Structure formats: structure tokens, C-alpha cells
Amino acid sequence: MLDKALKFEKAFTRMYLEDQKYQKYCREISTIRGNPSTDDWKNVKAFVKFLNIFYQTTLKFSGSLYATSNSFFHEFFNLRNDIIKYTKSDDLTLVDMAKRMKSKLEKYWGKFESMNMLLIIVVVLDPRYKMKYVNYILSIAYGTLLGRIKSEDVASILTPLYNHYNDSFSENSNDNIEGDIGITSEPGDLLQSQWEKYIEEEGNSERKSDLEIYLIDDVVKIKDFNILSWWKASSSKYPIVSKIARDVLSILISTVASESAFSTGGRILETYRSSLSPKMVEALICTQQWIRLPSKECKFEDLLEEVQKLEEIEEEYPDSPLRID
Length: 325
Hints:
By secondary structure, this protein is mainly alpha-helical. Helix 2 (9-18) crosses helix 3 and helix 14 crosses helix 15 (278-292). It has 16 helices and no strands. The longest helix has 41 residues, at 144-184. The protein has helices spanning 2-6, 9-18, 20-28, 38-61, 72-86, 92-109, 118-124, 130-142, 144-184, 187-206, 210-216, 227-233, 239-248, 256-268, 278-292, 300-316.
């Protein structure tokens, strides 16, 4: 609202000079407030400038059509740097606001150890930044020595996390191999398969893990980057790391999107419209969301291919409630 009011600064000034009714109104309430003064407009500009930082950050965190977890690290330290910068401003109004916001920030986020490390690890899993970016930001925020210690803390969590996923992946693979051996192999083939497995493990001990390969590879420089599509395409090159990325990128930074969905459901299913079936409520909510989405060109071939895939799923799972007829 304040940014809209700024556009009418000259209008308020002219109205105060020329409109007698407005002058009378301002005189009547002058004991509490009157026509905005020059200092008032100056304060409004300071407020808008400062609050716009939080507004833009909130918009990015509350998105529901893209991954948001990989944006937390950037936005948090950008916000932190802006607040610190405004504490040194020449504008006393900004300085006062910034100091109070800094104390709140330090209260809830001051300790690095209290942060959820997955929100930092997910930046490492962003191929545009990786570990070098985390090292760089932490060294700026906390100094070279302390920043290096905090970077080591992040790495000390990333490695066990990778080992956990790697062990789970290996167990699933071994179960499949043992199942196949028990059904099809002859007694002599069992030793052969064990020998091949031993040779493979020996080779794996000398090879670098896909996490090490991923961290060594160059960062990606793409203008319109979709991190989910990139990991989908790179899952064969980094099989274990892609599974970690899949799980970590699904973390929502904000609950705004889910709360909004419940709020929409409450407006549809109200006191006077409470006998709608769950399927109808779902259809109304989804239709409303689709209508609000920006329109984009759809090719008939793509739609036909999607329908064919749905028909194949129906044939495979005939009892599924998700049917298109």
C-alpha cells in the first residue's frame, strides 16, 4: 500500500493547497494527523525501500511451481547483508529499523549450528554453485578462518548423507542379484558371480564416487535453468547424488502454498455448500488453479500422447480411481 501511496505524493500536496474540503478535514484531525509532511513522505520512502527486500524474499520462498529449498541460502545471506548495510545508513529511520531487524535475525538465525544443514547442502546440489559457492559465501559472512570451519561442518554432513544413500542403493542392488542367482544360476555359476562381484568392489574402491565427480565437474552456466529437469537428465551420470537431490529439493521453505490450498478448500466447502463430494471439491480447486495459471500454447500431438499414456496406465491398473472416462 505504501508504494502505491508514493505515486500520489504530488497529488496530496496539490489537493492540500487547492481543495478547501480537504484542508478543513486536515484541520479537524490535525491533533492526531493531517496532511502528510515532507518528513512523512521521506519516512514512507525509507519504509518502502526496506520492506521491499522482505517482500521479494517472501515471494521467492512461497512459490509452488518450482523448487524453493535451493534458494534459501542465497536469500538468507542476501537479507542478512542488506540488514547489516542499512545499520550503517545515513537515514536514522532506516538505521533504527535495521538494528531491530538485526536483533531479531540474530535471535532466530544467529547461530550457524542451529540452521538446518540440509538447506545448505541443497545449494551444494545446485550445479550452478556447488561447494565452492558455499565456501565463498561463508568466508564473506564469517571471515576466512571461521568460514572454512563452517564449510567443513557442511562437508562433514554431506559425506555421511551420501554414504547412507549409497548403502541403501547397494543393498537394493544386492537383493536383486541374490534373487536372480537363487532362481537361475547353477552351483558353478555362484562362484563366478561372487568373483565378478569381488572384482567390481575392488574397482569401486579405486574409483571416485559420483559425489566426488559431481563436485569436481565444472559448474553449469545456463540462463533459464530448471534444477529438477537438470537432475532428471543427469541421474544416470550421478545416480546416488541425484537421489539425494530428489529428496532434498522436495523440501518446502514456506508453508504458504499448502496453507493457501486449505484456505481455498474452506471457501469452496462452506456452510451452505457442504454436500459436495470429495471428488467434486478436488475438481473445483484444480480447475481454479488451472484457470489462474498463465496460458501457454499446447500442441495437439503432446495432448494425444498424454491421453495415450493415461490409457496405458488404466489398462495396467484397472482398479485405479484415477480414470479419464
